Amino acid sequence: MSGMKPLHYTNRESLIYRTAVGISKASYVTVEGVYFRRFRIFRYKCANYHQQAIITRYLTRNPHLEAGVDLKQLASLLTISDKESWCKKLRDWHDKWGLFLKEKTHNPETNRWHYTHRRLRSAYRSLKSHSEYLFTYLEYPELHMPNTTNSLEGCFSNLSSKLRNHPGLKMDKKIKITDHFLTK
Fold first, then answer.
1. Is this prediction's pTM over 0.85?
2. By the 8 A CB rule, do 25 and 33 touch?
3. Domain coordinates of the chain in residue numbers?
4. Which residue blocks in the chain are alpha helix, DSSP H?
5. CB atoms within 10 A of CB 29
6. N or C: lower Cβ tally within 10 Å for the chain?
């Protein structure tokens, strides 16, 4: 398990995610949180829906720049593409728009330079850095892993309400409840 990247928690995550990961060194893990406990290896996964939401947040629903329109269309192909062809399309997009992404603008008030298309750069970087994890569900077909974590998030809402109904519990009891919930 050496060389594994640490989990990155999002603002949406609560004690449940952190507790579930903490009690289970043998969990199936996504970028968003815990996936399945029954597997005895770590695999990271980023749900395609969440990646498209990140892209929409950076580019808006109707990007004005041609580069943004192209990148948003590329992100929409996530669910119907395989890893190799999609990553090649992402590299081709960067070859076409790389110089555009490097454009800088000078701010005369602060006398500093900044990237002109910061949000577009952020959207591209998000796709590039997550590309390794976007197709995990295709790499392990025997696990029948979905490309989204919707069913998982519904499962955790039930656990959240159980823990919320007992606010006086100490951490060790919360861990036991979470462990029992994940193993049943």
1. no
2. no
3. 1-45+149-184, 60-133
4. 15-23, 48-59, 66-76, 83-101, 118-130, 136-139, 150-164, 171-183
5. 22
6. C
Tally of CA atoms within 13 A in the half-sphere of 179 that contains its CB: 11
DSSP three-state, residue 35 = strand
3 state SS of 148: coil
CA separation for the pair 86, 83 (Å, rounded): 5
Burial of 140 (0-12, 13-18, 19+ CB in 10 A): middle
Nearest to 76 by CA among 92, 56, 99: 56
- Can you tell me which residue has the tokens 């109904």? 165
